Amino acid sequence: MRFLDWFLLLFIFAFTIPRSVEAQNQAGFISLDCGLVPENTTYVENTINITYKSDADYIDSGSVGKIKDAYTTQFQRQLWSLRSFPDGKRNCYNVNVTANSKYLIRGSFVYGNYDGLNQLPSFDLHIGPNKWSSVTIEGVANFSMTEIIHVVTQERLQVCLVKTGPTTPFISSLELRPLPNQSYVTETGSLTRFARVFFSTSSSVISLIVLLFFLAKIC
Ligand SMILES: *[C@@H]1O[C@H](CO)[C@@H](O)[C@H](O)[C@H]1NC(C)=O
Ligand SMILES: *[C@@H]1O[C@H](CO)[C@@H](O)[C@H](O)[C@H]1NC(C)=O
Ligand SMILES: *[C@@H]1O[C@H](CO)[C@@H](O)[C@H](O)[C@H]1NC(C)=O
Ligand SMILES: *[C@@H]1O[C@H](CO)[C@@H](O)[C@H](O)[C@H]1NC(C)=O
Ligand SMILES: *[C@@H]1O[C@H](CO)[C@@H](O)[C@H](O)[C@H]1NC(C)=O
């Protein structure tokens, strides 16, 4: 079959399978709102029904901060606070995971002029000793997200922010989602995200727009 046929098949499939996002099972999810205070706060971000908690149990270093009020309305709550790392070249989160299993790891970043310097940061992310990605913030109110699909071999995973220049690394949220062993099978290495298509539960309009977009790309 041609790619287009595959896509149409997928499209039909996405529409016919009954989905239950509302009763989403968050077992094994780790959803950290970095820099959230007080440290024992948890809440549900109700646009996505995900329960976030403070990152305090996962890291000893860094300072807590908050994006300027002017920017909060355009972002989900987990992006309002952040943790920044003015000290040290490398600062790491320690996360307990299930050894030999696959995770989607996602870092999200909104600068929001939290430090009042109006200076856009850039820095690196590492998983353990290996470089994962470089983050370059392109605007004060830009949202950036970096994702990787990674097989963890041990029960402990380190996600590190590494200073690469004069600006201070920071992170707004860090999320881990366990994936079935059989998904995204690769011979070696990790996968980075190229694109994600979300077929909405409620609005067929979004799916239709996505379809038209793909058709326009293909044809
Ligand atoms: C979140 O959960 C509530 C209650 O279960 C539900 O009514 C609502 O539609 C859900 N929202 C989303 C975006 O899934
Ligand atoms: C959070 O901690 C504060 C003080 O440390 C305490 O008074 C409060 O009851 C705690 N809240 C929860 C939900 O555990
Ligand atoms: C991770 O596991 C260690 C050792 O079992 C435990 O001491 C620590 O509290 C755990 N950390 C978190 C954040 O659950
Ligand atoms: C990021 O910010 C720059 C400068 O403010 C803007 O031109 C650009 O469109 C933004 N990019 C995204 C993806 O929002
Ligand atoms: C996934 O596969 C690995 C190796 O093939 C195995 O050790 C592990 O137990 C599997 N994990 C799950 C959750 O099935």
TrEMBL record:
InterPro entries with a match to the protein in the record: Malectin-like_Carb-bd_dom
Localization per Swiss-Prot or TrEMBL: Membrane
Organism: Brassica napus (Rape)
Origin superkingdom: Eukaryota
Official protein name in the record: BnaC06g04990D protein
Domain Malectin-like: 32-204
Membrane topology field: Single-pass membrane protein
One of the record's GO cellular component terms: membrane
Ranges annotated as spanning the membrane: 197-216
Leader peptide range in chain numbering: 1-23
UniProt keyword annotations, A-Z: Membrane, Signal, Transmembrane, Transmembrane helix
Pfam families reported for this sequence: Malectin_like (PF12819)
